[in-house]
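Risk mitigation, structural track. In case the binding assays with 3'-deoxy-guanosine-5'-triphosphate fail to produce interpretable data, a predicted complex structure has been prepared as a fallback.
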Amino acid sequence: MKKEKIAIFFHNKNNEKLLYKYLSDKYDILFDAKLNQDEKIDLIIIDGVCLKKYQHQIEKLKEEEKPVFLPILLVTTKKDIHFNKNEIFQLVNDVIIVPIISIELHMRLYNLLYIRELTLILEKESSIDPLTGVFNRRAMNEMLIAEIEKAKRYKRPLSVIFFDIDHFKKINDTYGHDVGDLVLQKLASIIRNHLRQTDTLARFGGEEFLIVLPEMDLQNTKIVAEKIRKRVETTDFEEVKKITISLGVTQLKEDDTRQELLKRVDEALYQAKNSGRNKVVTVL
Ligand code: GH3
Ligand code: MG
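Fallback model:
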């Protein structure tokens, strides 16, 4: 089983050693961890001196991790609590007064990590479309905001593909809604297997999907979209046999907002539908 990562920030090296002794069997212990989102930390144990020192970094990290809970356990002496009540509730989730007792420490960690685990499950479930297992619209919008910001900051290309099943209503009407659901599942799975790790697929509406492709310009994205179109066209969808999709493609412009990008790719899809379906249309 994967061990949870606990970062320890202690001014007093003896206490640091003691914690290591108590915890290293059960947890991955990190000293001098970098407090940024790249280093995944599940919980922080910190003393009062270090808490003052790292307060702003911890606040920032906790904010970035939301709605996932990043627990902070303060270890302190009674006389060393200098924080006022409001501050401590904002920043710290539990307190142990020294001397550290192993069983007390383990109980606190168990409960704090259990709460974190629940928030991770909730976060995951609220991001995923239950039918297809791909991201839902809410999660995609959040992800897209971050990707647009990254692309603009580093002046990198970013493209999107928006696609929709052709005459899907007829499939539902002919074979029933359950078969329609199976088509959606199979379609999402085929396309997911067709993408790079860095691409993201989301179900945007009933039978509309969005793909975000970082580091891809319009020309290359058009090639990907065409391959996807072909792949879907040539896949056997069991009872339904064949389906086709129409796809719109566009690339992020320098001053685009997320809404403008999505509006343009929606326009491209609309053109693909109106010019005969089962095709890719690019708009810039
Ligand atoms: P077009 O080629 O213009 O896209 O035609 P269409 O029939 O695909 O489009 P339309 O918007 O008329 O119909 C979409 C259908 O998708 C209607 C709706 O019942 C169905 N749909 C939406 N969500 C689901 C779902 O979760 N499961 C199933 N089975 N069908 C769904
Ligand atoms: Mg459709």
